Amino acid sequence: MNRRTILSLPLLQWLSPRGICRARAGSCDSELQGSYAERRLLNTAIPSELLSHLAIWDERARDFRKQRRGEQPGGAAAVIVLHLWADWCKPCVEEFPLLRELETQFATAHRGRVQLICVAMIPSSDVMDAFMQAHRERMPAGPHFQDTAEQLDRLLRPRFAADKLTLPLTLLLDTSASRRVVRYAVAGSLRARSR
To answer: How high is the pLDDT of residue 17?
Structure first.
């Protein structure tokens, strides 16, 4: 990156000390995009109907299906930890044991007030089935959802520099009327910030 490029970037991007993995490119990038996106994601409203339209993974059928009554992500939980991932994203796969541990801690310490929701940016049931077969023991218990029709992707992508969504992406959402609001965002791996 030359000096002219640095001077054209927003100050928030230039000062960021973290590394991230850019989605679509599948490789690690400079720290600049993550910090910029995290700040732009704050206070983003995610409508409840968007979450209720996510497809849910049915382990028995090995297929995604529409949600049934009572399966809406978050349900009555006051706080949702929304985690977006993809099968081709190496940092996503590496942090599943950490997410599994967090899910257990939420269930023990917060008993229904905090829920981890994993949303796969995976195009088909076949890809998800193969991934689940290979990584089931490392993954959070679930349920697992799919970004049906890329609705979350379309909502969040414009908040990233160069319109490129960074994965993994973890958002802390609380309730505000008929929507969830982003109060904290981590673009890139949680491992570096696990404390």
So the answer is: 34
